[in-house]
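Quick one, probably user error.
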């Protein structure tokens, strides 16, 4: 799939909260860390010996990220977080009272969103018009780009405001680390934290131990002449 080529940001580039006050730094940090932790969990649970690959891990990371956001929205702990579309096109809303801002997320380079990434859903367009007004929402899309390294680990999460296919109005890397005050004097490397009350499969190896060389054979089931045998795989 072809990628859109985004130009360099002008010196007067806007920040997320310049578009809408609901897009605060704290809220974006929480959402970004949920997505980062979802990918962490997907990598930790991957079983490459059983056939997992980057595609299957990516599908699981997307499902985990969607589930974390859904669970956080339904928990009541984040009244500013809602789910607008829980389908494969997943759209969530930051801000309450029906006037929130719709956002979608994807894995890939923030500088190279695909045509699929730029495509806006109908409910997304309607919600954005309610939040910003039709004129301000024209051609606009908000995205969280989850960038990964060669091993599939999260490098950074970038908040994007994209206008049409060739104009970027906001490119803001979301801070994922713990605030400096919380880590002061700890003497340990800053790490991602779980913001929805779920720590994930801590201690689970990202590459599980291989299966035994041979598994014990099961006793074959008695054949039934009236029912054909079925092979499961």
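Nope, works fine. Designed sequence:
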């Amino acid at each position: 799939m072809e990628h859109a080529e985004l130009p360099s940001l002008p010196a007067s580039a806007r920040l997320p909260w310049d578009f809408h006050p609901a897009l605060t730094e704290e809220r974006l940090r929480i959402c970004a860390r949920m997505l980062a932790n979802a990918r962490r969990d997907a990598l930790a649970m991957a079983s490459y010996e059983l056939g997992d690959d980057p595609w299957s891990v990516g599908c699981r990371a997307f499902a985990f990220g969607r589930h974390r956001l859904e669970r956080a929205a339904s928990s009541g702990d984040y009244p500013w977080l809602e789910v607008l579309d829980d389908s494969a096109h997943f759209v969530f809303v930051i801000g309450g009272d029906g006037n929130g801002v719709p956002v979608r997320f994807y894995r890939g380079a923030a500088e190279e969103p695909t045509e699929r990434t730029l495509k806006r859903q109908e409910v997304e367009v309607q919600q954005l018009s309610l939040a910003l007004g039709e004129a301000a929402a024209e051609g606009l899309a908000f995205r969280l780009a989850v960038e990964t390294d060669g091993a599939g680990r999260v490098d950074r999460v970038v908040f994007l405001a994209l206008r049409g296919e060739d104009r970027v109005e906001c490119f803001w890397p979301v801070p994922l680390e713990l605030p400096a005050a919380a880590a002061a004097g700890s003497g340990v490397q800053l790490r991602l934290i779980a913001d929805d009350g779920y720590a994930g499969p801590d201690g689970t190896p990202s590459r599980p131990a291989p299966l035994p060389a041979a598994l014990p054979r099961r006793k074959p089931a008695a054949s039934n002449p009236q029912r054909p045998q079925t092979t499961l795989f």
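Residues 181-194, 203-233 have pLDDT under 50 and may be disordered.
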